[in-house]
Write a structure and sequence with these properties.
This is F-box domain-containing protein. By secondary structure, this protein is of the alpha/beta class. It contains 23 helices and 14 strands.
Length: 553
């Protein structure tokens, strides 16, 4: 009961943790809302404090949609914030246009839509979702989002008009947006104009924007979206689907509006012109800290094939990557996904080398990271996190990796190197690890031989997480026994990828735990294996005896 009497400021700080602990930049994941929603049910006091936070980023709860029901329930809630007289006027106009006056009264039997909050005024993050524009979904789910308006009596034309009106109302009445996301190719200028129009003080709704996400996909709005224009050409002022196209590109349009981003996510660059506009947009930012540049993996494949036949194939990323040096003081996080580095020029290498404050670098399935990037690796002396995920080791220079790890040996906290290792591929890398990685706490490696692993573990004096694939399954038990005496005392969790606990005898597991914990003083608490069918009770009892929990990956 005492929780009900906590000061509003205290409650708000507690509730904020439910949002802050999740990262918005993982564009494929949802921001959970269960905890905040539960808080709204505790009491009126809690509801008053938690609801503004729950509706700060409402669309981000449905980023990765397994069901569209929840999304359209959100639209229904937000639609309640539109003055009902305006919705009624839309219904009247539609009936008058259709000469259907006899049925007017059926539309006006609108359920009460009184809301405690003006939810739209609370929104700080907007995703311009395609589900707002795809006519087939608007119709399929009309019983949800239009449940207060007798949707069975509505034509397709009217349903789309109401949604278009809602989108315009939403954009007009949003304020102080901090996160904006376009998960498809943006062509319609109406939405951008509504968001970028400036007030008497020269500020727009995007002036304080901190994070921008843009997926320049092949898929644009559904071609069926366009309302039948046979009789409505004079009544389409509210129709966002009759597109007024952007004059050039999204970034060109936003250049004069957004200059204080902390994070920029861009997926796909189709043309040199788009690359130039993106480059200019990056250059005008005043405090850009985090950039994520990504390509579709199939585009990367096609580009690689083009290189086999066309030696002068343009690399649009030469233009974009060269602009990163304009953010040399502020930029701290770089993420590159499915990019081709084989054609980068000297300007790009100079630009990357000037980024002196990079703390986090993630390379995900990029190709042709060659020796010419050695000078960049030499300057990465402040890295705290480095993640490399590749399918083939041949996609990255061994010298680049060795130099990068040595350059950041004093600062690295998390190191992930993950690729499909064939036999002793990359042996020089593992033989040339620094003799001391004084800050490393998290280490993930590909398939590795025991002697290589022992050599690396000797340098990791603060390690608490280890993820590995021990090579040579036939000798796994013997290797496990030998490993026991070389584990750092700080190690708390080991993840044995692609390994089942069942291949280890109970005696071998007992030996490993006894030697590592009791004799060597390792602080081991968790062992993770791939056992899909769970663990035998004898193994659970044994590990529990040593204070260790078995975890299924």
């Amino acid at each position: 009961m005492m929780a009900s009497f906590l000061l509003s400021e205290c409650l708000e700080k507690i509730f904020l943790n439910f949002i802050k602990e999740h990262s918005f930049n993982d564009i494929g994941s949802n921001i959970p809302s269960k905890e905040l929603f539960s808080c709204t049910l505790v009491s009126r006091h809690w509801c008053r404090i938690s609801t503004p936070l729950l509706y700060s980023y409402p669309f981000h709860h449905f980023r990765h949609k397994t069901s569209y029901n929840s999304f359209y329930k959100l639209i229904r809630t937000l639609l309640c914030c539109v003055p009902q007289t305006e919705i009624i006027q839309l219904l009247k106009n539609n009936n008058n246009n259709n000469n259907n006056n006899n049925n007017n009264n059926q539309f006006y039997k609108i359920k009460s839509n009184n809301t405690v909050f003006n939810y739209i005024s609370l929104i700080r993050g907007l995703i311009v979702d395609e589900l707002m524009f795809k006519s087939q979904y608007l119709i399929i789910y009309k019983e949800i989002w239009l449940s207060s308006y007798n949707p069975r009596m509505m034509s397709t034309d009217l349903i789309i008009k109401i949604m278009n009106y809602f989108v315009k109302f939403l954009c007009k009445n949003l304020n102080n947006l901090t996160i904006l996301e376009f998960p498809f190719t943006m062509k319609n200028n109406d939405i951008i104009e509504l968001l970028t129009i400036k007030d008497c003080n020269g500020k727009s709704k995007l002036s304080d924007l901190k994070e921008l996400y843009y997926i320049n996909s092949y898929i644009s709005r559904d071609s069926n979206n366009n309302i039948n224009n046979n009789n409505n050409n004079n009544n389409n002022n509210n129709n966002l689907n009759n597109e007024i196209l952007l004059p050039k590109s999204l970034y060109f349009t936003l250049t004069n509006t957004i200059c204080n981003l902390n994070l920029l996510y861009n997926k796909r660059i189709k043309t040199i012109e788009e690359a130039n506009y993106l480059s200019q947009f990056i250059s005008i930012q005043k405090n850009l800290k985090h950039i994520i540049l990504s390509e579709n993996r199939y585009d990367l494949l096609f580009y690689s094939l083009d290189r086999l036949f066309y030696s002068n194939s343009d690399n649009k990323y030469n233009i974009v990557l060269s602009s990163l040096s304009t953010q040399s003081e502020s930029l701290q996080i770089l993420e590159f996904k499915n990019l081709y580095f084989g054609d980068i020029n000297t300007n790009v290498i100079k630009s990357l080398s000037l980024l002196k404050n990079i703390r986090i670098l993630k390379l995900y399935k990029c190709r042709k990271i060659n020796d010419n990037l050695h000078s960049w690796a030499k300057n990465l002396s402040k890295l705290e996190v480095f993640e490399l995920v590749e399918r083939y080791y041949t996609n990255i220079s061994e010298d680049f990796l060795i130099q990068l790890i040595h350059s950041s040996s004093n600062t690295l906290i998390k190191l992930v190197i993950n690729y499909e290792r064939v036999e002793k591929q990359g042996i020089r890398l593992f033989q040339n690890f620094p003799t001391l990685l004084i800050s490393l706490k998290y280490l993930e490696l590909p398939k590795i031989f025991l002697n290589e692993l022992i050599f690396i573990l000797k340098s990791c004096i603060k390690l608490n997480f280890l993820s590995i694939i021990l090579s040579n399954d036939d000798l796994f038990e013997e290797n496990l026994k030998n490993l026991a005496n070389f584990l750092p005392k700080t190690l708390k969790r080991i993840r044995f990828r692609e390994t089942n606990c069942s291949i280890i005898s109970i005696n071998s597991l007992n030996y490993f735990l006894f030697e590592s914990i009791l004799n060597s003083g390792c602080n081991l608490k968790y062992l993770e294996f791939n056992d899909s069918n769970g663990f035998d009770q004898d193994y659970i009892n044994l590990t529990k005896h040593y204070g260790v929990e078995l975890v299924k990956i």
